[in-house]
Amino acid sequence: xxxxxxxxxxxxxxxTPASAMSCAPVACAVxxxxxxxxxxPLRIYKRTADGGKEPATSHPLYxxxxxxxxxxxxxxLFRSQVTADALLQPYGGFAQIVRVDGRPFxxxxxxxxxxxIVVDYSNFEPAYAIKADGxxxxxxxxxxxxxxxxxxxxxxxxxxxxxxxxxIALCMVLEQHAARLFGNGARPSGVLSLKGSITADALTKxxxxxxxxxxxxxxGGTAVLPSDASWQAMTFSSVDAQFLELRKFAIAEIxxxxxxxxxxxxxADRSTPRSIEALGQEFVTMTLLPWLKGWEQALxxxxxxxxxxxxxxxxxxxxxxxxxxxLARAQALxxxxxxxxLNPNEAxxxxxxxxxxxxxxxxxxxxxxxxxAGGALSASGKTNDQEAA
Length: 389
Fold this sequence. Notes:
Elements: E1 7-8, E2 14-15, H1 17-20, H2 24-39, E3 42-47, E4 53-55, H3 61-66, H4 75-88, E5 92-100, E6 103-109, E7 117-120, E8 127-130, E9 139-141, E10 146-150, H5 159-163, H6 165-183, E11 190-194, H7 200-214, E12 229-233, H8 238-241, H9 243-258, H10 276-303, E13 312-316, H11 326-338, H12 344-352, H13 376-380, H14 384-388
């Protein structure tokens, strides 16, 4: 089974990347990380002489990274899919760089269902090859033309799903048990007793007739028994009584495996003194930042020439997370303008996409009376430092 990517578990379920995604907590954890990576703006910046940086809009990578890596895939979908591959597949997620005249022209995700990738670490420097199939022979790909988002697994050949297969299998088995339970009318099993001497064939037919009449969509109806039959429902066992607790434990195990806060898996029963903002910051800091840093460094290593790395950098813009919170966004920009980090026109553009207005390029503190239009500072045209002198 392992030759075909399946791993037999003690719980009895075969766990593969595809079957793992049929488990709701696993799918939620993978989507929480991969969709967050996909939604953040990714840009290439040029370092300026004063130590700052500005968007390098004229660089060929600007649109390749921010808009579309190829003619059929949006940038957000591309990053989400490759990140999901890295979370599920052995070795991680892969994308091939198509170059024209030595410069990156396209980025193409290597779908693991179509192109199984083998990584050889025998000579320390990884060597990449696509496995042979019935139609095509094996094909090697130069390491310089592969973007490799590594799996966080300790043994890359097994992947995170392979190393955590027992925790995933437990969750899958509990889900299957719940499905069977509700498929039988969400009732514990019972004993149907028939009096007299009954043949094996008669018992089989009686059981089949009872299940056809009272299970699934027919459950909950009125049971009519012949005079020589009786039904006794069995009570829940101690294991059944702890079923909900076991399911919560299984969800927590999935959260530990993918390092996702429990509330991101929609499990918020446990009380916590922290606010939802603090929980969101925990997700960004402890879960998301390692993936973002891995993406940034992988792209800089493979897409930028050595002489370009001192001039350009590739970074995600985490400010996009504040878009959903209008109040937090407005307060942050207001503080930045008051501290003269941004001028009003920059704040309007960054936070709300609004056009500039005349006089909005001045770095002033609008909370001081002298900075307002018609005030002493505005009338004299002096800066705060000059006024203080």
